Amino acid sequence: MTRMAVRSASMVLLLAAAGVAWTGLRLSGQAARGAATAGPGSFVASTAKGDWPSYTGDTRGSRYSPLAQITAENFNDLEVAWRFKTDSLGTRPEYKLEGTPLVVNGIMYTTAGTRRSVISLDAATGELLWVHRYPEGTRGANAPRQLSGRGLAYWTDGRGDERIIYFTPGYRMIALHARTGQPVRTFGTDGVVDLKVGAVFGNRQPIDLETGEIGIHSTPVVVKNVVLVGSSMKEGMTVTTHNNTKGLARAYDARTGKLLWTFHTIPRPGEFGSETWLDNSWAVNGNAGIWTQISVDEELGLVYLPVETPTSDFYGGKRPGNNLFGESLVCVDLATGRRRWHFQFVHHPIWNDDMSSAPLIADVTVDGTPRKVVAVPSKQAWLYVFDRVTGEPIWPIEEKPVPKGDVPGEWYAPTQPHPPAALMYGRNTVTEDDLIDFTPELRAQAKKQLERYKWLPGVVYTPPIVGNTSGLLGAINIGHINGGTNWPGGGYDPELRTVFVHANTSSVQSGSVAPPPPGFSDLPYQDGVVGQPFRLREAAGTGTYADVSQRARGGQPGGQAAGAAQAGTATPAAPASGRGGGGGEGGGGLTVQGLSIIKPPYSVLAAIDLDKGAVKWRVPHGETPDVVRNHPLLKGMNIPRTGQGSSVGLVITKTLVVLGESQFTTLPDRPRGAMLRAYDKGTGKEVGAVFMPAPQSGSPMTYLAKGKQYIVVAVSGGPYSGEYLAFALPGDAAGAKQQ
């Protein structure tokens, strides 16, 4: 039996297990698609028509839809219209579902399950239409980025050829016929492009196609007939070698799968920026991937690449120099991949300030002059804004001197870019005023505990130290690793010319490196503290792939316990992170009596006016965590809503900003769960909230199907496995108000 035949047989078995007949599914899918709106040369999917054809709604990162059926007046009337549980997609359930579906012409497409299956659903009912799976065995089990991924991409020639394109965990790109889920045989080899081909380490040495470290969990970006592909490696905090796989961005022909161009994020000799890798260090370092969403200005033919940290996250002693294009926004030509401009957010990165968010394409008016800009939310909770043609900062970004560290062998950049304070929408320094203040005693304890750290109040970039349990445990920073805005990113409203973004404002970290165990790595320092047990830092989802042996992992990840930890819901207060972050009973940790050492808000939803370059409003987002509401030392106190320490995605409609909570809470008037909340775009006032059985784990989206507006969000975490929930108004309550 050929491999494809095996896959087809397996797919039928999976569908049978799901309790639905294959023949019925196929006919249903074809009938629903129809050709009425996809006439020759006429079909264009768009949010203006009620579709959601890209991960962020469009290729500009907007997350905006003009749909107006769901409003402030009726948001609380929303009901669960349908739900799709993903447990049967893979060998075991997944507890961190991060996907955001697409909807085109009434059909939904998304990824799900521990094998990263692709599914097609009737967008009005949630009925399963088809499933595609591609078992990868050892290659999938070796994948640096597992889980079900964040979604997929849609392409059409406008004349009836419609395709779904997605990445497997093992870093293959597969094109499927949108109507049937069958591979497009003329794309790549029988529908598959092996993306590991062309990936290198060292001085242009090809990686092993089975075990080589590269993958991705963000989605392809399709614009015109081009598919844009990023890259990602394992978590970079504790790595076995600095000479890892090198990051790259590539473009492929959407019709054939042919490679069009490659951009090296670690430039080679003769390429722009190679001189920033001193001592020929470009040849012995890796990472600098592009793991979050790429954005495109189709009209200008420009692509915006958000690049992550080179190897390793907290120690750069093997890569002296500024290390372009690490932690940079790089603008390249869509047709050729040639660099047009770049801006490096952090020189010689050692704080893990990956470019985490999809760049936002916006047309605004600044000082009476129309400007085409690109805005980038960040882990530092600064919004960086540039002229998207030239790369010129719209508002001055100042190079400021920063403290120099003393880790042996490390190289330090003397300055770092600082955007204006008006564009700081979260919290990126820790001053005394930021410390917990529920009671004078708690604040006093916080100050005492911080005596165990190198703490420079008001400084954004305090370099890591060699922490030691016999001395200082680390250097205090906030808003780098898990702070500010992470991969869910923000959104842009073209009508209000406003960026909306959620930020974690309580992720205080202790920056420390220490020698790893003998033989673990060729780097002399890794994330850790001298005197504390070495802790391997793995990416979320490691060990969850469907073919990973749980016995080999000692019964760890892949199950409920791993999902709870990865979902970020296992830490009750959630705010503190980093080495030396535990404790809190006077032992020098970053929690105080089980509470964050930082005072609320623990996270905020912010609106930033892009005409003025200033924050319009900012409100806490999320119910006060149980650990705060039920804390015995706070009994009887009236504590305003604190928000929850995390970063979640959002969707923007005609009048609302909608986003869910990231943590479970239990309140007297509802079961344990989380809320999906709606805010007035103009004021930030909360105007509605509906219950979800688990926290939001993927970014929400909205669409129109059979005349009704839906909001769909992925939920999971703790003991709750992945599920897509579709909310809509009951019956005919939607009325006839449409776009």
Offer a quick outline of the entry.
The chain is mainly beta. Helices cover 7% and strands 28% of the residues.
Structure overview:
By secondary structure, the protein is mainly β. Helix content is about 5%, strand content about 30%. A hairpin with a 2-residue loop joins strand 40 and strand 41 (about 710-715). Residues about 1-40 and about 555-585 have low confidence and may be disordered.
Chain-averaged pLDDT: 90
User: What overall form do the CA principal axes indicate?
Assistant: globular
Broad structural category: mainly beta
Tell me the span between the first and last alpha carbons.
51 Å
Regarding quaternary structure, how should these chains be classified?
single chain
Give the uncertain stretches in residue-range form: 1-41, 556-587
Largest sheet: 5 strands, antiparallel
Strand content is: 25-35%
User: How many beta-strand segments?
Assistant: 42
- What fraction, in percent, of the residue positions are helical? under 10%
